[in-house]
Amino acid sequence: MFNLKKYRKRSPWILHYNAGSCNGCDIEILASLSPKYDLERFGIINTGNPKQSDIFLVTGPVTYRSRERLIELYIQMPEPKVVVAVGSCSCTGGVFRGMYNVEDGVDRYIPVDVYISGCATSPELIIDGLVKGLEILEKKTKSMEKPSKLFKDTTSREGIVSRRESALRVGEERDEEN
Amino acid sequence: MLEAVVVIIAPIIGGLIYGFERVVCARMQNRQGPPLLQPFYDMGKLIDKQALIINPYHSILGIMHFVTLWVVVAFIILGQNLLYVIFLHLLSSIFLILAGFSVKSIFSHIGANRELMSVIAYEPILIMLAVGFYLINGSFDISVIRDNPPQILQLFFLFLAFLMVIQIKLKKSPFDATEAHQEIVGGVEIEFSGVFFEFLYMAKWLEYVFVYLLLSLFAGDNLALGFGLFIGVFFLVNLVDNATARIKINHLIKIVLMIGLTFGMLNLVGLSYV
User: Fold this and answer.
1) Closest to A49 (Cβ–Cβ): which among B22, B45, B186?
2) Residues 6+ apart with CB under 8 A from B173
3) Residue-wise pLDDT tens digits, A116-169
4) Would the CB atoms of A35 and B30 count as touching at under 8 Å?
5) Number of A:B CB contacts under 8 A?
6) Whether A78 and B194 lie within 8 Å, measured CB to CB
7) Please, are residues A54 and A137 in contact by the beta-carbon 8 Å criterion?
8) Which spans in B139-248 are helix H?
9) How far is C-alpha A169 from the geometric centre of its chain's CA atoms?
């Protein structure tokens, strides 16, 4: 039969969400879509629509106001999907870590597959991270993924709540299902 | 027999045109662009994706839009009545508009509204086009139109008006307010996902086939001229798409109705008195 999974990494469509970023990483994402770096040669389109996208690009340290939108957008994306945290803020909180109004990274709420570091991150790194995300996308199944804050146990290390382990575990379970 | 085969592979031809267009657009912007078969990769991915159904009517109306459009394309290829073709095409647009209004999303409603307004803008031009062909050939039958010599010179002003209809139908700048990708997130297509978006995506390809088949009617029995028209208009449409910005929907109606209706009436009056 046809193996439809191989088409996943040939046409990943992006949803880009700014969870309280300073706009630096957003500009770099748009730069990587521009003629010089040309992400469209991988078949990537920047759709603004969660219902038709495969890769969720999140920038910013997740402010309190953006939390519900973040989870809402994540739930609205159909499976299979990959979450890419772009920039230091969305990986760990960056310079905003520990502030009263931010949540120190995307992985407190949704499982992240690829972390792209840098403040602001460069278009080359974004392209590398997206291509890495495509490998993960190919392995995923259609089974429903749950927002981790709501359904998973938290792991606490030195008083800091981290979602990173549980996020990794989700990916491993997927491999076993395949 | 050949016509039946062409009808069956019409969506594939449309997909190839769409893929080629994306490459041409990329080259015009000095980019490498996606591969030629990119629309088919997208299709393979969309089949495999989870489909979220908002309500059954919404999904069914999307499929109906695709099926009706395929019937329209089949009618043109088989050489049926041009008026039937235009009104059936209107029906397929109505299905899409109903689908847009059947969900609660505000962007879907805005998109459906704009779709309806663009129908108001381009439908009179299409009907005048049919009347123009009737005045020359004495028949609405596409097979008769195809047997007669090229009519582009007699219908030159209608041809100019039809160029604007192409921009609206293919959702190209400056007349792409109906879809408006970053502004209202695709309009009517916002709530479709997975397999159901697939049908809308293929309907978009069929729209290409429909528009360029109508364009080829201007060439009559001259196949080379028809092909030349297709190539020329194809590049012109993409050049204008890359060179212009989007205009508002009320300006779209004003511009298309003012210029298009004037050109169309001018052409029809000229045909009946000269």
Assistant:
1) B186
2) B167, B240, B241, B242, B244, B245, B246
3) 888 888 888 888 888 888 888 887 766 555 554 444 555 556 655 555 555 444
4) yes
5) 87
6) yes
7) yes
8) 142-147, 156-169, 195-217, 223-243
9) 16
In angstroms, how far is the first alpha carbon of chain A from the final one? 17
ipTM confidence score: 0.77
The tokens 């990916």 sit on which residue?
A171
Domain ranges of chain A: 9-177
| Cβ distance of A49 and B30 shorter than 8 Å | no
In chain A, which residues have their Cβ closer than 8 Å to the Cβ of B50?
Answer: 78-80, 142
Q: Do A54 and B49 touch (CB under 8 A)?
A: yes
Task: With beta carbons less than 8 A apart as the criterion, state whether A53 and A73 touch.
Answer: no
Is residue A167 within 8 Å of A111, Cβ to Cβ?
yes
Calculate the alpha carbon distances from B234 to B18, B25, B38, B168, B212 in Å: 11, 11, 19, 14, 9
Contact A4 B29 (CB under 8 A): no
Best CA proximity match to B150, nearest among B211, B83, B217: B217
Measured between alpha carbons, how far is B62 from B146 in angstroms, rounded to an integer?
Answer: 32
Full-model pTM: 0.83
For residue A2, the chain B residue with the least C-alpha distance is B44
Integer CA distances (angstroms), B132 to A4, A49, B148, B251, in order = 48, 42, 14, 26
- B-side interface with A, Cβ within 8 Å? 22, 26, 29-35, 38, 41-45, 47-52, 181-182, 185-186, 189-194, 197
Structural contact between residues A110 and A151, judged by C-beta atoms closer than 8 angstroms: no
Residue type, B134: Y
Q: What is the pLDDT of residues B203-219, one digit of tens each?
A: 999 999 999 988 888 88
CATH value of A9-177 in 3.90.1200.10, 3.10.450.50, 3.40.1170.60, 3.40.50.12280: 3.40.50.12280
What percent of chain A is helix, strand and coil (3-state, nearest 5)? 45, 15, 35
Residues 6+ apart with CB under 8 A from B145: B82, B133, B137, B139, B151, B217, B220
